[in-house]
Amino acid sequence: MSSRLVWNGYGKAAVRLVKVDRGAARHGLHDLTVEVQLQGEFGPTHTDGDNAQVLPTDTMKNTVYALARRGPVDPPEEFGERLGRHFLGACPAAHRAMIALSVHRWDRLSAAGAPEEHAFARGSAERRLATVTVEGTRAEVEAGLEGLGLLKTSGSAFTGFLRDGYTTLKETDDRILATDVEARWKYARPPRDYGMAWSAVRTALIETFARHESASVQHTLYAMGEAALANCAEIGEIRLVLPNRHHLLVDLTPFGLENPNEIFVASGEPYGKIEAVIGRPQHP
Amino acid sequence: MSSRLVWNGYGKAAVRLVKVDRGAARHGLHDLTVEVQLQGEFGPTHTDGDNAQVLPTDTMKNTVYALARRGPVDPPEEFGERLGRHFLGACPAAHRAMIALSVHRWDRLSAAGAPEEHAFARGSAERRLATVTVEGTRAEVEAGLEGLGLLKTSGSAFTGFLRDGYTTLKETDDRILATDVEARWKYARPPRDYGMAWSAVRTALIETFARHESASVQHTLYAMGEAALANCAEIGEIRLVLPNRHHLLVDLTPFGLENPNEIFVASGEPYGKIEAVIGRPQHP
Amino acid sequence: MSSRLVWNGYGKAAVRLVKVDRGAARHGLHDLTVEVQLQGEFGPTHTDGDNAQVLPTDTMKNTVYALARRGPVDPPEEFGERLGRHFLGACPAAHRAMIALSVHRWDRLSAAGAPEEHAFARGSAERRLATVTVEGTRAEVEAGLEGLGLLKTSGSAFTGFLRDGYTTLKETDDRILATDVEARWKYARPPRDYGMAWSAVRTALIETFARHESASVQHTLYAMGEAALANCAEIGEIRLVLPNRHHLLVDLTPFGLENPNEIFVASGEPYGKIEAVIGRPQHP
Amino acid sequence: MSSRLVWNGYGKAAVRLVKVDRGAARHGLHDLTVEVQLQGEFGPTHTDGDNAQVLPTDTMKNTVYALARRGPVDPPEEFGERLGRHFLGACPAAHRAMIALSVHRWDRLSAAGAPEEHAFARGSAERRLATVTVEGTRAEVEAGLEGLGLLKTSGSAFTGFLRDGYTTLKETDDRILATDVEARWKYARPPRDYGMAWSAVRTALIETFARHESASVQHTLYAMGEAALANCAEIGEIRLVLPNRHHLLVDLTPFGLENPNEIFVASGEPYGKIEAVIGRPQHP
User: Who among D165, D254, D268 is closest to B168 (CB)?
Assistant: First the structure.
């Protein structure tokens, strides 16, 4: 044989699920995108076109909808685990199931100050994330968020950096700092309430971003990660990706105008990209 | 001559402008995308490559930033008019200037219940729109919004429709109604306060969507337009475009499950598209 | 009554249709996105929620697929006309049907120099467009294309333009000219072969872009329109929209380097936007 | 200390570079998007806001443009290695530099059968990829491609799969198979010519897709990987990701019509996602 299957995975992506909770007069709304991936002993379909061990991805899609009917989809961490355990049972060749859930935001409308029972407005692009990996009897839960746009107009500097022959950037002690937060954290042990834990992390990230005296994106990223760990005891470590969405000060001097940090170009490309994993201290 | 210039227009699109109001301890943030278009006697550049009457689009971009520094950018209707009048002065060949502004949402952050002075979170994809067309001394102002996602889980039916040999749709007296509102309205006379007028129209659209007993998207669209006209005396007419973002009830019967309007597929394509212009009654 | 329906239209958008022609050993592939819109006497659904005259948009979707089976989808102009006439018959309240078709490109693969019978590669983002409006017994046909990216590295200048106090742009007699062509033309009378007419116009646009000594985007746009009219006698007029996709020369002098029109930033925002309608000369 | 920096990386993404080769009468055009990432001893900026070891991402951008001027950008594998070695020299705290390059397609225009010297049309969305990781004196080169859309109308089946209580999919021995190929491979040793090696792999992938009698996406994926290894001796292993872009047969029986594999809906969501790594056999 001239080649071999080193690794493989397959599944269904972009399964769009909306569930309405109609139990009470006030409806609940859950809007999720789900991805399922199985890994395991699927060699025969690759090498021989023998599909006897292949559960169709169409079946995975059906199962997401059916299990959403059979039980709650919130918190997504628990729905994901339920799905993962199901698929390991349904597909004997699979030894690992990975379920990735992304929750889209809807805000309840209110009219004349009173909340509406059945009407919602689409929220920001921020998504709550949950990824559950089930292997044997063990489930690993990663939670997170992405697309959370934050911007501050004060309290951000960038000075004292390394310079070389290609450096033209000026130092600044007052700039706009803007980013779209992506955060992912693993629970060392399950929190009592996934929703509350998620909110505690999110609040720590946002409040730290707002109040930190930033010497660099890295500096603020680290402070955000540290605050998240401090605010949620169950997290072992957190990964943060902070694109630096540059806001460039416009040079108005050709027109006889000063620009005291007032007029900016919001630029799309290129952008800085700062990433780190922050963990708890290691004990000897 | 074998051909002629029937119509022409040119300008700069996607000018990204962020202005920080630093006058008070609490900063203000304005995030706009601006488009400029001039129409007029620009035949020579087309037919002879003679650019003597062509103000560069690069200059238009510079001017947007400079005039944003020289005066307020809010309300966008007034900033747009200021830009339009400027360009007619700067470019004698132009007889019409069209300025289209799109305002991106940022929500002020609050920490521990108190609003932050300098920090913001990106809001939903909804944009406030203003389009100002200046011709001679006259300015026409169109306001609007787009990208406002709304969804209701009750109070929407679709029955009694026309059927032909290609009709398979079932009647329903309870479905999800979801849309992304695009609305544009012209002011017959300037309102006292553009921001208040805009909010009055937006509130009318949202509250009507939430509370209307909908027999069709058209039915709700018309009610929304009617409410907007009722809530803002200065509007002559309003145009609404309501895509029908279908949420398809999943058939769970193959799995021995009922689906009492609970589990849906949020589908992207295809989608219904319902449009109308609603005006005031004509008097004889 | 406090308001009235000034105008209305409704239909189905983003109907994705793929048709395989299996008649010969060599399969044909047609990949289209279709939009249907009806206009007419649909007041009762708006004002009273009476849907008796409303053909569901779901039926429109079904009809697109069924008529694609009953007859050819190529040329899109004729498929569109067939759809439009059908809908006017199926929906008595409609007095106008508008069908907009967009054709996606697939290129037949070849292996070892020989064309494959059944395999294709996705082509560029360019789409062929056809929009057919049927009213009574009359059909108006508009053809076009969009998303055709063109770039030339020589033969483009921009000098002698109008300057004011906000002008900082330098004159250049050698720049990159890049655009994404959008073109739409109306046939004054039907051509013998829609496909050949479309190709004749497209070839005229591309060859003129490549060879024109450009003094401005307007200058090249006009030449392209003129060539299209010259190359296709059935066209009455053509509308062209040419965004100016700026390629900015990088200033390398801080690093002791010249940049003889060699290194550029391809910028996305902002962009120039040049539009015109070119017609045939009017005779007195 | 309550937390620690487990891992970090930073850099500049989405650097858009266009280089024109003007050496000969026939210009060459290179259109790339470049990303730079450094990893290393950047703890002080995270924990103390001390930027003394931080080379600004703005400098990285400048360097990409300057080094593109100083030497060739093609093949991207060699340009990437040159950039990576430069950054390790310029930034002593960095111990690893990762450079990811994505090459956009432009096709030379021809007019009346003859190739144009200076004019190009944007090609398909396929991008050639190169990722170079430099660590100490060692450079690891990964090549690849993404966005290559392929479709076949014959020679694809899916039968004999595992069924459970949620399976409704019908077996088929003739379906459309469509995908967007993403492929990445590592060179065990440098090929003599990166461009020729890349073309050899690409040709193997495309021809195998076209001619393989497919029993499943996995089956075709494996055959594609095997052919790539056979066609390029320097590759150690190849990773393939093949989304299954479903084309759903339309049920026309309600309208009294058969559909002999002729009329399909091209669906966007959900989609199957098949991945594997194919390597050379291990020798004992």
Answer: D254
Taking only the tens place, the pLDDT of each residue in A100-144 is 999 999 999 997 788 999 999 999 999 999 999 999 999 999 999
Whether C62 is in a domain gets the answer yes
The DSSP secondary-structure symbol of C280 reads P
Token pair, residue B154, equals 């009750």
- Cβ contacts below 8 Å, chain B against chain C, sum to 255
What does each C-alpha distance from C145 to C67, C148, C197, C221 come to in angstroms? 24, 7, 13, 15
Residue A1, domain extent: 1-136
- pLDDT the model gives residue B113: 80
Task: Tell whether A131 is covered by a domain.
Answer: yes
For residue A273, indicate whether it is catalytic.
Answer: no
Q: Does D115 touch chain A (CB under 8 A)?
A: no
* D contacts of A160 (beta carbons < 8 Å): 50-52
Note whether B56 contacts C158, CB cutoff 8 Å: yes
pLDDT band at D47 (very low <50, low <70, confident <90, very high): very high
Query: Which of B114, B136, B158 corresponds to the end of one domain?
Result: B136
Residues C154-165 pLDDT 10s = 999 999 999 999
Please calculate the CA angle B81-B85-B90 and round it to the nearest 5 degrees.
Answer: 145
pLDDT in tens, D136-184: 999 999 999 999 999 999 999 999 999 999 999 999 999 999 999 999 9
Query: What tokens does C5 get?
Result: 């329906």
Domain boundary among B136, B169, B185: B136
Q: What is the mean pLDDT of residues C13-25?
A: 95
How many domains are there within chain D? 2
How far apart are the C-alpha atoms of D201 and D224, rounded to whole Å? 9
**Do the domain assignments include residue B141?**
no
What per-residue confidence (pLDDT) applies to A112? 77
Q: What percent of chain C lies above the pLDDT cut of 70?
A: 99
C113 & C226 share domain: no
- Kindly state whether residues A112 and A238 are assigned to the same domain: no
Say whether both A11 and A78 belong to one domain. yes
Question: Which chain D residues contact residue A162 at CB under 8 A?
Answer: 51-56, 91
Model pLDDT for residues B1-25, shown as the tens digit of each residue: 579 999 999 999 999 999 999 988 8
Helices in chain C by DSSP H: which ranges? Answer: 43-48, 57-70, 76-90, 194-211, 217-231
Average pLDDT on D227-243 reads 97
Q: A104 by DSSP, 3-state: which?
A: coil
Which of B27, B60, B69, B146 to mutate against chain A (most A CBs within 10 Å)?
Answer: B69
Residue D284 pLDDT exceeds 60: no
CA dist B142 and D260 (Å) reads 52
CA closest to A212 among chain D residues = D49
Are residues A43 and A162 both part of a single domain?
no
**Is any Cβ of chain D less than 8 angstroms from the Cβ of B165?**
yes
Under 8 Å between Cβ of B29 and C282: no
Residues A131 and A156 in one domain: no
Assess whether D43 and D65 both reside in one domain: yes
pLDDT at D1 over 70: no
Angle between helices D194-211 and D217-231 (to 10 degrees): 150
CB–CB contact B168 D268 (8 Å):
no
Asked if the Cβ–Cβ distance from A18 to B264 is below 8 Å, we say: yes
- Tell me, what CATH number does D54's domain have? 3.10.270.10
Q: Which amino acid is at C157?
A: A
Predicted local distance difference test score (pLDDT) of residue C39: 98
Element (H, E) at D192: none
Do A81 and A173 have their domain in common?
A: no
Q: Is residue C219 in a domain? A: yes
Q: Give the H or E element holding residue D116.
A: strand D114-122
Residue C214 and residue C111 in one domain: no
Any CB–CB contact under 8 A between A206 and chain D? no
pLDDT of residue B247 exceeding 80, the answer is yes
Which of these is catalytic: C33, C45, C57, C59? C57
